[in-house]
Amino acid sequence: MRTVVLNPVGAQVSDLPLSEPSSRSAPDVSRLRLLLAEHGVLVLPGQEIDDPDFLAFLRCFGRLTFTAGETPVPGFPDLNVISNVGRTTPPRSVFHVDTSYVSNPPAYTALRAVTVPEQGGQTLFTNQYRAYDTLPADLRESLHGRTVRHVVTGLSPDAAGPETEAHHPVFPAHPISGRTTVYISTPERCVSVEGLDAERSRQVVAALYEHSTSQANVFRHTWSAGDVVIWDNRVVMHRADHEAVSGDRVMHRGMVTA
C-alpha cells in the first residue's frame, strides 16, 4: 500500500486492488481507517471492481446504511445511483455532510466511478480539521461545547424516515485521531446553534460554512475510470461540481455507519 498525501486534504492510495479479498484484510482496513482519520479522503485509482466487490470493501468498515429518497442501484439496494443521464438540467450540489440529520450519521461514504464524463464532474472536499485550526479564536471560544440542530432538507417528513432532526456538537473530537473538527453541513440543514437566537445562529452557521469552504481549504478530485474514493464524513464536507460537464457521469455510492 503506497500513500501520497494530497493538499489541502486527502491522500492517494495505490497498490491496493480491491478486487482481491486479501486487500480487505483486517490490517489493511485498520490502516485505511487511520488514513481516513488523518487525511479525510482516500483516492484509490485503477480499481477493476464491480458492485459486489465494492460492497465487500464497504462492509469491512461497518454496517451499510441508505438514505431515504435516494435511487437504489438495481439489484443492490444498499447502493444508490448518482447520475446525470437523461437530465435536461444539471443536478444541484452544495457542500454538505451526508445525512447529518440523524443521530448516528454515516461515518464513511464511498463512490465508485461507473461512467466518467469527457469533461468536468469533479468532486470537491473541505478540510474540517484545518477549518477548526484556522478559525478566529474568539469565534472558536464562543462556540465550544455548543451543538447545532441539523434537520432534513429536500424530503417530506413522511419520506425522510423515522429521524428528521438531530443535535451534533459543532466542534467534535474525532474518535480515532482525537483531533477537533468543525462539524456542519449546508446552512439550509443547520438551522440553530444551542444558546443562540435565530438570527445569531444564522450568522454563525454562515460564517462557519464560508470559512470551511474557502478556496484554500478545498481539494478537487478529477475522476478517472476505475477510481474509488472513500471519505470520512467527520473530517470533510463534499460536493459535486456539475457545471460544464460534457458526457455521462454515473457513480455508485455506498455509506457506512460508525
Automatic annotation (TrEMBL):
What keywords would UniProt list here? Answer: Dioxygenase, Iron, Metal-binding, Oxidoreductase
The terms under GO molecular function for this entry are:
taurine dioxygenase activity
Key word Transcription regulation present: no
Report the domain of life of the source organism.
Bacteria
| A Pfam family that the UniProt record links to this protein | TauD
User: Transmembrane segments in this chain: where?
Assistant: none
* InterPro entries given in the database record: AtsK-like, TauD-like_sf, TauD/TfdA-like
Q: Does the record carry Iron as a key word? A: yes
Q: Family per UniProt?
A: Belongs to the TfdA dioxygenase family.
What PANTHER family does its record include?
ALPHA-KETOGLUTARATE-DEPENDENT SULFONATE DIOXYGENASE
Q: What is this protein called?
A: Taurine dioxygenase
